[in-house]
């Protein structure tokens, strides 16, 4: 999912912290499985490589768990990782640390001579499976509420990006966590991930990733011990730009939504509906801005656009771009790989996109923005809701009444008004429809990690001390 507590301005995060110096490549120390505060090798002796997507060079080999550092690992621009992912991770930990002594039940008035109250108790062992696009941030989104509620965690980082999770394991041990509270099992979905979903001694699983895999996890949970399931899945997120909006701001915000993290976010603003009176100007400003995005080495502080995560994603994105051209959309800019740069794709904008086209229906997970025209508010709401997904949406207008009515009509778990990707640890995040179940972040996430027990006492007619 998306970055937190730091929206992106001109390709860089807004932050008052001093600019970091050029990045020194760290030595990779932690490549083993982390269980009970100890480092273990795979029982089967298996390892798998983790690759730097910017260079195609292997960083190291990681121990692979079986049925049992951010910019290098993901290819995201260093400043995004430093100011957004790391900052959001710290704020998430601090927020849930504040909840640890405030999770309590209620006392309810019931019939005479009875007292009834509730307790919130830990669920137990919580499994977590996180994606490759925000590996450190998603790690914290999962473990922070789980630990605040008193649970233990078994977490599987994505096989593409295990290094920050393993480094965090070393920090967890150094901080003095008791053995077994947090366990980190790098590995692959069909083995380590499937084991978490079906394990009889795991009481809850939280997953962030594709809708297709989310369905498999929910099925595995149902077939095993009916463990609780929280799913944060895909999105095909609409942005509605009305003619009375601040057009320059709308261009900047929707483009940050489309191209942040190379479009590799479930919140990606991939469907932009623009009122016809300002469509041409919005398109002109968008293309002009996209052509000025700085593409390059993720470890270079000036870079704001890095590579895609791997060859599979790279090929999928270009295949969808080709489908857009074939189905009749107009390619305004981009649409191709950066020459001699491996997995880099130019920021891409399509105009004249129709709702039936694949690029308007499928989650691309790449730097592709589809700009469409609309005439009426009723029309655009129907079109925006005409998808299996319902994760996020955005509305751009100066009319507060329109903003509120359209926000209410949109079928999405998060609606941003005159902004995009404004996520905070205090606010819940999750989706409608096939974008998932349950909520992460905020007080709402605590309900996903506690069992509520009702206790009823009958009072005797005489009170004794």
From TrEMBL:
Domain Aldehyde dehydrogenase as annotated: residue spans: 69-455
Pfam families, per database record: Aldedh (PF00171)
Keywords: NAD, Oxidoreductase
InterPro entries xrefs: Ald_DH/histidinol_DH, Ald_DH_C, Ald_DH_CS_CYS, Ald_DH_CS_GLU, Ald_DH_N, Aldehyde_DH_dom
Any one GO molecular-function label of the UniProt entry: oxidoreductase activity, acting on the aldehyde or oxo group of donors, NAD or NADP as acceptor
Region (Disordered): 1-21
SUPFAM superfamilies: ALDH-like (SSF53720)
PROSITE patterns: ALDEHYDE_DEHYDR_CYS (PS00070), ALDEHYDE_DEHYDR_GLU (PS00687)
Polar residues bias spans: 1-18
Active site, renumbered: 232
Family: Belongs to the aldehyde dehydrogenase family.
Name of the protein in question: Aldehyde dehydrogenase domain-containing protein
């Amino acid at each position: 999912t998306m970055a937190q507590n730091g929206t992106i301005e001109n390709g860089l995060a807004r932050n008052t912290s001093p600019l970091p110096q050029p990045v020194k490549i760290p030595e990779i120390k932690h490549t083993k499985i982390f269980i009970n505060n100890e480092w273990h090798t795979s029982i089967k002796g298996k390892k798998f490589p983790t690759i730097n997507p910017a260079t195609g060079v292997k960083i190291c080999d990681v121990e692979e768990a079986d049925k049992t550092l951010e910019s290098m690992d993901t290819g995201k621009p260093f400043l995004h990782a430093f100011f957004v992912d790391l900052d959001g991770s710290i704020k998430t930990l601090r927020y849930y640390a504040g909840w640890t002594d405030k999770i309590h039940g209620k006392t309810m008035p019931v019939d005479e001579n009875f007292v009834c109250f509730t307790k919130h108790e830990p669920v137990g062992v919580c499994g977590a499976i996180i994606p490759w696009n925000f590996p450190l941030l998603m790690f914290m989104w999962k473990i922070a509420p789980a630990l605040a509620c008193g649970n233990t965690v078994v977490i599987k980082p994505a096989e593409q990006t295990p290094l920050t999770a393993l480094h965090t394991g070393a920090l967890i041990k150094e901080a003095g966590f008791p053995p077994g509270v947090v366990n980190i099992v790098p590995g692959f979905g069909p083995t380590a991930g499937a084991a978490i979903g079906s394990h009889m001694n795991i009481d809850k699983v939280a997953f962030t990733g594709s809708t297709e895999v989310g369905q498999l996890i929910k099925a595995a949970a149902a077939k095993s011990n009916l463990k609780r399931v929280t799913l944060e899945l895909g999105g095909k997120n609409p942005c509605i730009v009305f003619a009375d909006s601040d057009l320059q701001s709308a261009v900047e915000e929707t483009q940050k939504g489309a191209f942040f993290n190379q479009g590799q976010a479930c919140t990606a603003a991939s469907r932009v509906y623009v009122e016809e009176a300002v469509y041409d100007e919005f398109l002109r400003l968008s293309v002009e801005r996209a052509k000025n995005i700085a593409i390059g080495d993720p470890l270079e502080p000036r870079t704001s656009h890095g590579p895609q995560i791997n060859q599979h994603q790279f090929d999928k994105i270009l295949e969808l771009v080709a489908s857009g051209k074939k189905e009749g959309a107009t390619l305004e800019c981009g649409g191709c790989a950066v020459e001699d740069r491996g997995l880099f794709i130019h920021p891409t904008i399509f105009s004249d996109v129709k709702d039936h086209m694949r690029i308007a229906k499928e989650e691309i997970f790449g730097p592709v923005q589809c700009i469409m025209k609309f005439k009426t508010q009723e029309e655009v709401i129907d079109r925006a809701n005409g998808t299996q997904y319902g994760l996020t949406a955005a509305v751009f207008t100066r009319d507060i009444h329109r903003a509120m009515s359209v926000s209410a009509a949109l079928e999405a778990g998060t609606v941003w008004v005159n902004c995009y990707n404004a996520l905070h640890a205090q606010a819940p995040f999750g989706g409608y429809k096939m974008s998932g179940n349950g909520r992460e972040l905020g007080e709402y996430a605590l309900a996903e990690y506690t069992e509520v027990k009702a206790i009823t006492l009958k009072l005797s007619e005489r009170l004794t001390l």
